[in-house]
């Protein structure tokens, strides 16, 4: 537990897109004395003020991992293997439950959990929803099903453990330069020629009517996590930057021509690519993007004193440059793009790696 020096914070899932930025944000907080980063695989990334443990939330003793912590931040999540949903369920749902139960058994005072906009039920097209909107997800894909299930599970957890401060972060789509190769690998696969992806050389932007999403720079998401760690807040927080992104926004931002595409064409193309193991993203994930609502983020602004520093245009430009450059970090989830890594994506099966 906390000493006169400050808080001890354990971050589970510390070497991915969000985890690396959360570690950096926590290291700048004077109220924090000790940071423990937890990941399934060791890495060559060594941030300051952080000690690392290797542990798998789905299998290892999480009581030992969270023992003595003031706050447990749970970020660990697998998007792949998309063709074996039982594997992602075991890690994402059962692994998270093991972390939460361990936190209760070890009397950890606070748990901060990475939920998502995908936990929300479909919403209105003409207005934004706040944190009171139902979180039943969208049943057609593993990701929203798993996020929604954990929302329901945490409802009962909070009833059973009223002394634990539970915070649920519900961000939009999170990007940074260093996550570009990882996200290309997770959602688009190895066939995308990264050298052709450049924000200044995009001639056409395909768009689907009524498809709008909210994006957020990972550093801004991490700042919200850090605020939730050091302040006595609880409950859910929507996180996104303004304005929402649609085809018209992208075309204007990158000087491209927008081309309208019917949803069934995209849906069919993704389905064929996924079933042929050419792309890792499932057709259900595209359906999820069509269903998710736009979020009202005023609660985070008011209670966390949080405002994103990066605009959606800045975030997406940085991300696309990262795809072009094969950017990453020396951690297993964020390894930079190399020919050997692309070959490994094929040999291990597109959409199959865990």
TrEMBL record:
One Gene Ontology cellular component: cytoplasm
Chain ranges passing through the membrane: none
Superkingdom as given in the UniProt entry: Bacteria
GO MF annotation, one: aldehyde dehydrogenase (NAD+) activity
Residue intervals of the NAD-dependent epimerase/dehydratase domain: 9-238
Protein name: NAD-dependent epimerase
Organism name: Rhodococcus opacus
């Amino acid at each position: 537990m906390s000493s006169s020096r400050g808080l001890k914070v354990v971050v589970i899932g510390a070497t991915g897109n969000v985890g690396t930025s959360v570690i950096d944000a926590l290291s700048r907080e004077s109220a924090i004395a000790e940071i423990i980063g937890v990941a399934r695989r060791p890495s060559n990334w060594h941030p300051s003020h952080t000690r690392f443990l290797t542990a798998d939330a789905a299998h290892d003793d999480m009581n030992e991992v969270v023992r003595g912590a003031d706050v447990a931040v749970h970020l660990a999540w697998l998007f792949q293997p998309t063709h074996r949903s039982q594997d992602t369920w075991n890690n994402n749902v059962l692994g998270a439950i093991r972390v939460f139960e361990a936190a209760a058994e070890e009397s950890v005072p606070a748990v901060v959990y990475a939920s998502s906009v995908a936990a929300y039920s479909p919403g209105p097209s003409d207005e934004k929803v706040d944190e009171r909107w139902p979180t039943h997800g969208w049943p057609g894909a593993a990701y929203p099903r798993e996020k929604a299930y954990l929302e329901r599970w945490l409802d009962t957890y909070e009833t059973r453990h009223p002394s634990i401060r539970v915070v649920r972060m519900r961000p939009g789509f999170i990007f940074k330069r260093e996550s570009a190769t990882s996200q290309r690998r997770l959602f688009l696969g190895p066939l995308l020629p990264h050298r052709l992806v450049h924000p200044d050389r995009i001639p056409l932007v395909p768009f689907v009517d009524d498809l709008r999403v909210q994006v957020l720079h990972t550093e801004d998401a991490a700042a919200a996590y850090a605020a939730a760690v050091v302040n006595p807040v609880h409950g859910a927080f929507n996180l996104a930057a303004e304005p929402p992104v649609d085809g018209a926004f992208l075309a204007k931002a990158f000087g491209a021509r927008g081309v309208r595409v019917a949803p069934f064409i995209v849906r069919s193309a993704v389905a064929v690519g996924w079933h042929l193991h050419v792309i890792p993203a499932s057709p259900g994930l595209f359906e999820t993007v069509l269903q998710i609502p736009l979020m009202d983020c005023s609660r985070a602004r008011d209670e966390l004193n949080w405002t994103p520093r990066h605009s959606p245009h800045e975030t997406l430009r940085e991300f696309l440059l990262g795809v072009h450059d094969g950017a990453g970090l020396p951690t297993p989830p964020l390894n930079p793009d190399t020919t050997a890594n692309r070959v490994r994506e094929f040999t291990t099966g597109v959409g199959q790696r865990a």
